[in-house]
Amino acid sequence: MLSEFDLIKQFFKRDRPGRADLGIGDDCALLTPTPGRQLAISSDMLVEDRHFFAGADPFMLGHKSLAVNLSDLAAMGARPVGFTLALSLPAADPVWLEGFSRGLFALADAHDCELVGGDTTKGPLNICITVFGELAPGHALRRDAARAGDDIWISGTLGDARLALAGYWKEVTLPEADHAAAAQRMHMPTPRVALGLALAAQPIAHAALDISDGLVGDLGHILAASRVGATLDVDALPAGPVLGRQPADLRRRFTAAGGDDYELCFTAPAAQRAAVLEAGRASGTAVTRVGTIEAAPGLRFVDAQGAPLDLGLSGWDHFS
Known about the structure:
Elements: H1 4-11, E1 38-47, H2 58-76, E2 79-89, H3 94-110, E3 114-122, E4 126-135, E5 151-155, H4 160-168, H5 176-187, H6 193-201, E6 207-211, H7 215-226, E7 229-233, H8 248-257, E8 263-268, H9 273-283, E9 287-294, E10 298-302, E11 308-309
Parallel strand pairs: 2-3, 7-10
Antiparallel strand pairs: 1-4, 2-4, 5-8, 5-9, 6-8, 7-9, 10-11
Helix pairs in contact: 2-3, 2-6, 4-5, 6-9
C-alpha cells in the first residue's frame, strides 16, 4: 500500500527545474514573479458525480482538472507559471494515479506550467487546483471592462460538451461515433491560453471570461459587472461539429446555454475586428463575432435575420 509521501514522490514529484525556488517536499513553494509583472491566481474544484462521472478515465480527468484552471488564466490574458494540487482519494490506486498524473503533466508541460506543491488525503474523490499566471499590469482582460458598441466574440465552438452530456443522460440518442466525438470536448477541453495572451498583449479586447457554465449565464457576468446590455445572434453562435448536425432548436439551446465549453467570450471595439481575426490566426484559434454590447441593460436574442427570439435560457447553477 502506498503511503501519502510515496504517492507524491512516485507520481507527482519530478526532478526538473521549475518556476519555484522551493516546491514539492517543503512546507511552501516560493515563487519569484518576473519583475514588473502581476500575478493572476485562480482555483477550481472538480467533485466526483458533480463535475465528472464516477469511473471517469483518469488520463482525461488529469487533463481536464488542469485545463479548467488554465482556461481562467486564458480569460485574463495571463501566461501560466505554476500550480498546486490538492487531491482527496478513496484509495491510492497506482493504475489510476499513473493515468491521472500522465494526463495532468501532458497539459502542464504543453504550457510550461510546473506543479509546485499541494496536499493529498484519503476521502471522496475531489480534485482542487490553484493555478498561478503572470501578465503586464493594466493588461488583464476584466469582466467589468465591456463598453457599449463593443463586438462580442466567441473562440472555437460551443455545445458539443452539452450534447455529450445529453447523450449520457439519455436526453438524445446519438450514433456511437458522434457521441464519442462530442464527449471528447466534454472530457478534454482546450484552454485558449495563446488566444488570451494575444488579446491582452496590445490589448485588443476590453473584457473576457471563459465559458464554463453556459454562454448566457457567463456573458451575464460581463454585462452585470460592466453595467451594460447586449444583443446576441444565436444563429451566429459556432456550434461544435456534432451539434451542428442536430435540429436548430437543439443547436440554439446547447450553444447558448450548454456549459463545459471552456471557450473564451470576449468583447472588443469594432475598430479592432482585423486585430481580433489576426489574434485568432496567430494562436490557431477560430473566432466568431456573435453580437454587440449595448448601453440598455439586459440580454436580447435575435435570429440570423435580426428577428427577436424569446428563448428562456439560463446558465448552469452548481447549487440547483
